[in-house]
């Protein structure tokens, strides 16, 4: 996991906090970032006895100018730990003055964040847990972190230089000081939209790939069901299943999303789970022969119904349980004996365990995109001040496709 932290700021230079309530822009409104130029002053002297000018090497002059550069850095912080459904008011957008410089002798890098990813797993980090999970809880008063696409502004690391494009864990802010830049991934295919590295070519894409191929281990002709199928991961799982030669059905929460699954992503069938009175009956209608692979994104009643419809030696790839994230008391699963009777294998996975395979995945997925075998839908919100609304929208099904925030477009 990458280590990133906000830029060091001087308390005397803090600007007035800007909350999302004060900033007033609506979601999806285009925001323009104002660049604050660096001002330099030179002293000219002449005549006898005038001191000789001191000339610095160009590289040192550039470093000095970068160290002197000061910018406004909007940041999204957590106000308080959350219980139940989160609200926009649980987060706050504040602005601080920050210098674009790395500490002397440090191997850190300052990055300008271009796109930030909004993902369901972030909800768990907004609560306080007595027992540690695979990723730490957010700390009230501190900047949220997420996966993002960034451009290196200044670097003390020999492997990174200004202008390099990278993706990885970063702060929900305009600029981040990353203390561990070697954990970032270089962007090898800038010919694609850079935003794709928050989705199809980034963490969600790798999640879909390893969850389907490494965990579920599909075979041609098998029957595959994907829940939350129009989201960042689900839309890719379905398309990878079709490339493999499987029969694929997806569920989603609106007729618009169901239509997207069937007309754009190539699913064989799909249904709106909110319109189904009986999920068990809906699955039997779509899978009269049963389900070989279930790519699990939601949990709860859907998981219970799926277990009744799994085939002998079926596999459940446990990616997420979004229906449970906002419940104070998670729902239980009643049909677990099906796992025994049908010899079902259920396996959870964490994508970070597979980061070492990213290079292979990136090249394969880039190939599918170039060949037109994979298509990807994004839901882009403009402006970092709209990050809280974008994140909360995930848990109300407002997004269509991969939810992300455009902080700066370059």
What does this structure look like?
This protein is an alpha/beta fold. Helices cover 24% and strands 24% of the residues. The protein has 11 helices and 16 strands. Strands 1, 4, 5, 6, 7, 8, 15 and 16 form an 8-stranded mixed β-sheet that branches. A 6-stranded parallel β-sheet has the order 11-10-9-12-13-14, sandwiched between helices. Strand 13, helix 9 (337-341) and strand 14 (345-348) form a beta-alpha-beta unit. The model is unreliable at 8-56 (pLDDT under 50).
Topology overview:
Blueprint: E1 4-6, H1 20-23, H2 58-68, E2 70-78, E3 91-99, E4 109-117, H3 122-125, E5 145-155, E6 165-171, E7 175-178, E8 185-186, H4 203-216, E9 223-226, H5 234-244, E10 247-252, H6 255-263, E11 269-272, H7 279-286, E12 291-296, H8 300-309, E13 310-318, H9 337-341, E14 345-348, H10 358-371, E15 378-382, H11 387-394, E16 402-406
Parallel strand pairs: 9-10, 9-12, 10-11, 12-13, 13-14, 15-16
Antiparallel strand pairs: 1-7, 2-3, 4-5, 4-7, 4-16, 5-6, 6-8
Span of the ends, CA to CA: 26 Å
Element string (H = helix, E = strand) = EHHEEEHEEEEHEHEHEHEHEHEHEHE
The oligomeric status of these chains comes to single chain
* Main pleated sheet: 8 strands, mixed
What does the radius of gyration come to? 24 Å
The overall average pLDDT, rounded, is 86
